[in-house]
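Exercise 7.
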Amino acid sequence: EEFNEQAPLLAASPELYPAFSANYLPDGGPVKLGQVLRQADLAGTFAEIAAKGPDHLYRGALGERIVGHLSGLGGKMNMADLAAVQPRWREPHAVSYRGLDIHVPPPPCEAFQFLLSLKILEGFDLGGLS
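Solution. The predicted structure, written as tokens, is:
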């Protein structure tokens, strides 16, 4: 649904829409409920990173391709920006829901609201509802 909502907005940007459409609107869109989104280029990129390591992105050819693409769109990111990235681990938030452990990313991700909803629902006999 989100892709379908954004498509008309991005269609007004000829520099952005072709890539958006190719990646997120299989067969030209709109996306249908239950449709499988296959992104062969993204899968290939992940395979490259897995084979060549993170420096392929942060200091290597993949980073250079990204910086070049963004520069062509008027962006200002450079290789020094990528090289300066310092990921850090943050413990996920977790709750138990009906015997299952549910883990979500911590804030600033808003997934904690999902955990709150599950804990509220746990107090109800959902199976007994029509």
